[in-house]
Write a structure and sequence with these properties.
The complex is a heterodimer of chains A (about 180) and B (about 280).
Chain A (H helix, E strand, L loop, with lengths): L3 H9 L12 H5 L10 H9 L3 H5 L3 H4 L5 H5 L6 H14 L7 H17 L4 H12 L8 H7 L13 H10 L4
Chain B lengths: L1 E4 L10 H13 L3 E4 L8 H7 L1 H16 L5 E2 L3 H16 L1 H11 L9 E2 L1 H9 L1 H6 L10 E4 L8 H4 L9 H8 L23 H17 L4 E4 L2 H9 L9 E3 H8 L17 H6 L4
Parallel strand pairs in B: 1-2, 1-3, 3-4, 5-6, 6-7
The chains are: A mainly alpha (about 180), B alpha/beta (about 280).
Chain lengths: ~180, ~280
């Protein structure tokens, strides 16, 4: 049976995590490390030690902003940003779900928006996110101003060949 | 020159000032834009955070559509630019993935067109001298810091942006239009855009840090080339720290005296007009 480390390496499809010599440049440059329970370097160590459940159940993987500062500064080109994508996808596919629930709910609302119209209609997407997350009151004071300034419109143009977009979702659906 | 144009979802909504100013600046600089046929969303961070194949396929659909024009494609939104470059990178490096994605999209990917951001096109193709020759009203008194953010620059081997840790192209353009551009150490720090809605409190702190640093550098505004950075920096900082934020194309349009160049300032959330009036620029 494959170890957790082997599984993650296979999905990253690049430099294996064993190349990390724990200099912690990834963590020094990470803008959200202070909010994570395990910093990016610690996550690599945990994967090396087979701590699958703790890693997939962590807030850390959902607080990564994908700013790509870690890979940019890694002296060994370990793709930590891609590693975080892989871990999030594993958490979803294995049924663990997201420790930071609203982050995943936002992604789900966003993708549902693309599937519906091919392009994002921001008011519709926000409404869907608010219903999913039950975070009903944040940002409501910003919305009227944005409508008034023409930044939000309920009727934005859609992709005409919407079937081609829906097909992409269908064919890449997690098994 | 003629290029394909991929506006992306933001430029038709929260980032409409970027679309408007990009079109007028392009026309004035002799860049003809041909919109990508029936484009769809690039997938942004929500696709790559949850489903790798979906993220590559959504971008590939647009790249394949853009290939029909047989022109380089200009992608003003830094997030769309990043996703397109990332898809190109993976599709060119991994033949097995390319075959799989072509099957998902139902069309062949050639990889023959260049994916370019407008900073690169204006700086490298049009050039600073041409820009200077078109300036009718130098932006004297405006003191911006240039904010490049993440997605135009990183990862460097994918984005291929010059000087990715200390980029300078936008700074040189601001200098060319008469602004007194300030130097600072936060040009490429993240504003937190991808978590702005779902983890707002963290993102407010990140925006506050950027605004404090901009003020410390002596800036009276921030200039950006990303609609996510713009929305975030325009809305999220604490009120006492806010500064006007502009798209670089809005300021170029103003300095070139283009028709409609004063209109885009009206839809910013944090009103930049008092600053521009004080400096007698509008």
């Amino acid at each position: 049976m494959e170890t957790f480390l082997e599984q993650v390496n296979k999905e990253i499809h690049g430099v294996p995590l064993q190349a990390c010599y724990h200099c912690r440049k990834c963590t020094a440059g990470c803008p959200t490390a202070q909010h994570m329970e395990y910093n990016p370097n610690k996550v690599i160590k945990m994967i090396q030690n087979g701590k699958r459940e703790q890693v997939l159940n962590s807030k850390t993987i959902w607080l990564c902003l994908s700013c790509e500062t870690c890979i940019t500064r890694c002296p060994n080109q370990v793709d930590i940003a891609r590693m975080m994508d892989v871990l999030r996808q594993m958490a979803i596919e294995s049924g663990v779900g997201a420790k930071e629930k609203n982050v995943l709910k936002f992604h789900e609302a966003f993708l549902a928006g693309i599937k519906r119209g091919g392009r994002i209609n921001e008011p519709m997407m926000m409404a869907e996110y608010k219903l999913k997350s039950l975070d009903l009151f944040s940002d409501v004071l910003l919305a009227p101003g944005m409508f008034m300034k023409g930044k939000l419109s309920l009727l934005s143009p859609r992709t005409k060949d919407i079937k081609s977009v829906k097909d992409i979702f269908e064919k890449t659906k997690h098994s | 020159m003629k290029v394909s144009y991929y506006p992306g979802c933001s430029l038709h909504a929260t980032g409409k000032e970027y679309d408007q100013s990009m079109k007028s600046v392009s026309s004035a600089l002799g860049i003809e834009l041909q919109e990508v046929d029936d484009w769809s969303c690039c997938g942004a961070s929500s696709a790559h955070s949850t489903n790798f194949d979906l993220s590559i396929a959504l971008s590939a659909r647009n790249l394949i559509s853009a290939e029909k024009n047989a022109l380089d494609v200009m992608v003003p939104c830094a997030a769309c630019f990043n996703r397109f470059k990332m898809a190109e990178h993976h599709l060119k490096a991994d033949k097995e993935l390319k075959t799989k994605i072509e099957d998902v999209v139902g069309a062949k990917y050639q990889g023959g067109i260049a994916i370019r951001n407008p900073i690169d096109i204006i700086y490298n193709e049009i050039g600073i001298d041409t820009l200077i020759a078109k300036i009718v009203k130098p932006l004297t008194g405006l003191k911006p810091v240039s904010y490049y953010g993440c997605l135009l620059l990183r990862p460097p081997e994918v984005c291929e942006f010059e000087n990715y840790e200390n980029p300078f192209m936008m700074d040189k353009m601001m200098d060319a239009i008469g602004a007194d551009v300030k130097n600072w150490s936060y040009k490429t720090d993240c504003c937190g855009g991808s978590l702005a809605i779902s983890k707002t409190s963290i993102v407010v702190d990140m925006c506050d840090k950027l605004m404090s640093a901009a003020k410390e550098a002596g800036a009276n505004c921030v200039v950006t080339a990303c609609p996510l950075c713009m929305a975030n920096l325009d809305m999220r900082p604490s009120s006492k720290l806010k500064l006007p934020v502009f798209y670089f194309t809005e300021l170029i349009a103003l300095a070139m005296g283009l028709a409609g160049s004063k209109e885009t300032f009206k839809s910013h959330i944090f009103n930049p007009q008092p600053l521009l009036k004080k400096l007698q620029l509008i």
